[in-house]
Amino acid sequence: MSEQENKHKQRQQKLKESVDARIEAAQEEKGILLVLTGNGKGKSTSGFGTVARAVGHGKRAAVVQFIKGTWECGERNLLEKAGVDFYVMGTGFTWETQDKEKDIAAAAEAWESAEKLLADDTIDCVMLDELTYMVSYHYLDVDRVIQALNNRPTMQHVIITGRACHRKLIDLADTVSEVKPIKHAFEAGIKAQVGFDY
Ligand code: ATP
Ligand code: MG
């Protein structure tokens, strides 16, 4: 073995020891609060990917969508068949309905579904898709959201998606990822396409 190969081997060995030690030290198991935020594309798809992962292991998952798009959601078509319950906010988004009172009522109703799921220990994973907007528009009180998250079953995982997540939710979360836009096809005039964007 050359000196260079030997050095590489030693470095890898050291790295392995340090990774093994950290894996060994991480012993706790608990329900994770995951926040997927930022302005780039990939928050909801990442959340649905995690839901699919749970279902793939025979776990129970449910999704509450706080914005009803005008498009049908491909993940819903698939995951409902796999036993995932979906609760979709009962009205369109503000710039379509332009009726704030109606939107607030719809947000409150969707949040009630979320609270039920967050109190149900038979649900292993709850995804609150686009929840962040309900908080930033003051449609939902952040402290009420935090209370439900704090009181949820110990082993229940929760995924929150959406841009501009409230600081208090970020502080509470165990894992936070920010999706950063580098470029997006839409800016080049390419429209959102079925089976890829929704
Ligand atoms: P996705 O559902 O594809 O994971 P997302 O949840 O990260 O996207 P949202 O802000 O919820 O993003 O937007 C949903 C829709 O808007 C998707 O069709 C997505 O392609 C599009 N989109 C997301 N980010 C951008 C962006 N930076 N510019 C333009 N369109 C975007
Ligand atoms: Mg999204």
Report on the architecture of this protein:
This protein has eight helices and six strands; from the N terminus they run αβαβαβααβααβαβ. With 198 residues, the protein is α/β, with parallel strands linked by helices. It has one domain: Rossmann fold, CATH 3.40.50.300. The protein has a six-stranded parallel β-sheet, sandwiched between helices. It is globular, with a radius of gyration of 20 Å. It starts with a helix and ends in a 20-residue tail after the last strand. It binds adenosine-5'-triphosphate and magnesium ion.
Lay out the secondary structure.
Elements: H1 3-25, E1 33-37, H2 43-56, E2 61-65, H3 74-81, E3 85-88, H4 94-97, H5 100-117, E4 125-129, H6 131-136, H7 142-150, E5 157-161, H8 167-172, E6 175-178
Parallel strand pairs: 1-5, 1-6, 2-3, 2-4, 4-5
What is the number of helical segments per DSSP (H or I, 4+ residues)? 8
Residue-averaged pLDDT: 93
Strand sequence of the main sheet, in spatial order?
Answer: 3-2-4-5-1-6
Any idea how many domains? 1
Using the alpha-carbon principal axes, give the shape: globular
The fraction of residues in strands falls at 5-15%
Overall strand count: 6
CATH H-level superfamily title:
P-loop containing nucleotide triphosphate hydrolases
